[in-house]
From TrEMBL, chains A, B:
Transmembrane segments: none annotated. Residues 9-87, 111-189 form the Thiamin/hydroxymethyl pyrimidine-binding YkoF putative domain. It comes from the Bacteria. Pfam families: Ykof. This is Thiamine-binding protein. Signal peptide: none annotated. It comes from Sporosarcina quadrami. Gene3D superfamilies: 3.30.70.930.
Length: 193, 193
């Protein structure tokens, strides 16, 4: 095991369209997204993408945004991981440039919840509180709650916050970081936003 | 903050029916489940239940099993938490007896993935590997994968494995434990099981 030696970022997620034509929505979003900068594998429960951080977040956002355009209520739920000691060095696309492949800037309201889990780090609660404070400063904080924090706003601002949080919350001394994100789009519970 | 002093277990989850009548499926599952042994709150993204471990797992399983009976493809995705230093002591139902409220034993195939995150514990990878080995011994292990492990079988065996894993992976010295579970039911990808 090569503990955290590589800059591999992974996101294991599922896209859940609350619609009878869920297969069509999922396949449409995947086909409309340029995933060439990440390694990707889908099984019967979830999909995992791996590569440079910039591409993993770009592809995740593009899939959600593409699916959102169907107008269907959907959720994107998953876990971002970096530096896992049990991680393998294969299945990565680290030779890609830093130029992102998906540039759709369409606005889309999302309501989401996240939790940070900095592993094997005695100061982990401080790291979590710091990122929650930053969300409040950036205007994307929605609500406090048990086990998570609510983050909402335009999908581009929300993903920018998450990518920065994921960078801030890990360090050379504490490479193993996990962040869960659950995102709701086009929900009848969002009060018409 | 009273760090891990109480036996509060929480599960923040979402039920995702991949169906146009998702509201009906969710409300039906919640109304058919006896949730009187847990504190419960729903917001625009997820639902959280809190209480004694036995009741939290019992209610989570009952909601999934009830929704499964609609025959619709659905997912249950969420995070079990215990001993979080930032947790509050309110919103719990710890005065309940240990008698479970939901006893439906109907068989239901589920395919799921889980990850354990024992917080602030230098030996956390050993704990994770031990529970994955136990899944293999108990016949519920499905597959290895990046960032998670596949667990499948009858819903009752799968939930029994998860509840035991959640007990095994925390201790008096390391009270803060997080476990993510993503579960797929009635999926066209399950090959007719």
């Amino acid at each position: 095991m090569e503990c955290g030696l590589s800059p591999i970022i992974g996101f294991r997620f599922s896209l859940y369209p609350m619609a009878d034509n869920f297969v069509e929505v999922i396949k449409g979003a995947l086909s409309e997204t340029d995933t060439s900068n990440v390694w990707m594998h889908t099984d019967d429960v979830s999909t995992v993408i791996r590569g440079k951080q910039i591409h993993v977040f770009n592809v995740a956002k593009a899939i959600a945004l593409s699916a959102a355009k169907t107008g269907k209520h959907l959720a994107l739920s998953g876990t971002f991981s970096a530096g896992c000691p049990g991680d393998t060095t294969g299945d990565v696309y680290l030779d890609k440039s830093d130029e992102i492949a998906n540039r759709d800037a369409t606005k889309q309201y999302v309501s989401s919840q996240f939790a940070l889990y900095p592993m094997n780090n005695p100061m982990y609660m401080d790291i979590i509180y710091k990122e929650v404070d930053r969300a409040k400063q950036q205007g994307v904080f929605n609500d406090s709650m048990h086990y998570a924090s609510g983050i909402h706003g335009d999908i581009h601002e929300v993903f920018a916050f998450y990518e920065e949080a994921f960078s801030n919350a890990r360090s050379d001394d504490h490479k193993h970081l996990v962040m869960t994100v659950s995102m709701s789009i086009n929900s009848p519970s969002h009060g018409g936003r």
